[in-house]
Each structure stands twice: as structure tokens, then as C-alpha cells.
Amino acid sequence: MKGKAYFISGRPYLWLYGSVTIVCGYSFALLKAKRLEHSFSEFLDLVILVVFMPSLLSYFVNTFNAVFDVESDKVTKPFRPIPSGVMTEKEALISSFVAAGAAFLLSLAFLKLEHTILVLLGIIMGIVYSTPIPRVKSNVYLANLWIGIGYTLFGLLGGWFYLYSLVDLLKTPFIVYMFIMLMIHTALATIVKDLVDMAGDLKAGVKTLPLVFGEEKAVYLVVLSLWLPLLGFPLLFLFYPYMFSFFYGLIYVCLVPWAIVETTKLLKVAKMRETSVKKTKLYMKRFKSVFFYSMVFLLLVALTNILILL
């Protein structure tokens, strides 16, 4: 029972999202290097980067945050380990810092200096996001952007740094453009999570975009997150035409119909006059769909980059 609680506390689906984002960044590094071959030691380091680092950092950030979200979770997620009584706040704090320490040591032992710096930034951002002072989570203008920066920073740039350095990054504007676009996309997409948590956040006094600016406006921003990658990606070819490939059309074939359907469903839920419990369930379905949409976009970009190299 305890083992399952620790596993759930780290939000496994976010581990997966972090891994996919790293793979996407790594695929751009491969595209620039024009190679697919790896030695065994390179492959081992890649496994540590893609599998272990996202799981450890995600566990730290989410379990640490759960300690400070108990009141809100009692309303919207009473089944989670801490509000359900399966895990104590002390156990959550200790295990979260063990995970953070493990991530830091693994990065020192196997990965590059850039990765170690990203790990330290991730730990600091996680602490600042959750703790009562300064508690970025309570800042309605910064909270979602903070999440977008955090996941894209270690994800996309973590994958990129596997083959290249910070100096190389500054000389490669297209990866900086992708970072900014994905950061904004992630920040806007996470608003759907605030829609799920409206009742709990209202009780806990947490200021989120849906509570401050209204549910319908928040939904419009989530809808924008669906279309931003589809509209922003072609600009990459406008500025860097040498990167163009018809393979990227696969992204639009798969995601344009999905974006249309999801936009319709989100707007429909926003206009419903239901109880907070019913709305929470409806937005939870939309959260899952938006989450998988983002992950499929990243996977399709990575797949396309690899197909170009074959």
C-alpha cells in the first residue's frame, strides 16, 4: 500500500511527459548532428537522462508540492496519498528530497554539467513554486508560466544538451524558438488543471486564472494552447527553410482533427451550468485529452526528425 502511494505521489503520467519532451529535444540535436549511431556508454547515459531523471525530478516537484496543497486536495482529490492518510507530510517531504538528491548525484556521475545545472534549477523552482514564501503557485500571472518553463527547461534543453553545450545553444536560434513556443504551449495547457481544481483552490484561497479572470476566458487560453504548436511550427521553416520536410505534414494530419474536436468539447463544458462536482469530472476528461495531445505532438516531432535522418 505504501509503495503504491509513493508511486502515485510522483504522478507517473508527468514522468512520461518529461521523458517525451527530452526525446523531442534530443531528436533536434540528432537532426543538427546528422547522425543516429550511439556507443553503449552513450546509450546508457541516454537511458539515465530519459528514464531516471524525469521520474526523480517529477517525484520531487509533485510530492513536495502535495505537502502544501493538502487543503485543496481534500476537496478535489481526497484519494491522493496525503489527504487519504496513506502517506504523512513528513514522509512526503523526506522522500521528495531523497529523489532530488538522487537526481543531482546521477547527473553529476553520468551526465554533463549543463544537466546538473538544469537539475539544480528544477529543484529550486520546485521549492519556490510550493513553499508559503514566495509560493509562486499563488501568483496568478506567474504560476502557469513557471510550470511551462520548468518542464520545457529540463525536457527540451535536457535532450538538446545530450549532444551540445550551452554555447552551441546560443548559436542555434531554432532550438531557442522551439523552447519558447513549447514553454508557452505548456503554460497555457496547464490552465486546464486549474479548471479541474477550481473548487479546491477556491476553498484554499489559491488565486488561479479561472478564479480571477473567469472560467470561460481560461478555457479560451487552453484552446489557444492546442493551436499554438500547429500555427507556430511553420514559422520555424519560414526563418529556417533548410529544415523544411514534407514529413512534418504527419503532425497536421494527426493533430488538426483532434484540435478541432477538443476545442468544441472544451467550449461546450465552459458553457454548461453544472454543479462544481460535475464540472470537475468533465474538466478532468478534458485535462487527460489535452495532456495526451501535447505528448503526441512532441512524439510526432521527434519521429519526424528521425525519419528525416533515415
Query: Which range does the strand content fall in?
Result: under 5%
Helix content: over 70%
Low-confidence stretches: none
Q: What is the SS-derived class?
A: mainly alpha
How many H/I helices? 15
What is the overall silhouette? globular
Please indicate the count of domains. 1
The Cα radius of gyration reads 20 Å
Distance from N terminus to C terminus (CA atoms, Å) equals 46 Å
Mean pLDDT: 89
Outline the biggest β-sheet: none
Tell me the total number of β-strands: 0
**String of helices and strands:** HHHHHHHHHHHHHHH
Helix-strand layout with pairing:
Blueprint: H1 2-9, H2 12-33, H3 40-68, H4 70-76, H5 89-110, H6 113-130, H7 143-160, H8 166-170, H9 173-189, H10 191-196, H11 198-204, H12 209-213, H13 215-239, H14 249-271, H15 276-309
Helix pairs in contact: 2-3, 2-7, 2-15, 3-5, 3-6, 4-11, 5-6, 6-7, 7-9, 9-13, 13-14, 14-15
Q: Any descriptors?
A:
310 residues, mainly alpha
Provide an overview of this structure:
This protein has helices at 2-9, 12-33, 40-68, 70-76, 89-110, 113-130, 143-160, 166-170, 173-189, 191-196, 198-204, 209-213, 215-239, 249-271, 276-309. By secondary structure, it is mainly alpha-helical. The protein has one domain (2-309). Helix 3 (40-68) packs parallel to helix 6 (113-130) and helix 6 packs antiparallel against helix 7 (143-160). The protein is globular and about 55 Å long. The model has no long low-confidence stretch (mean pLDDT 89).
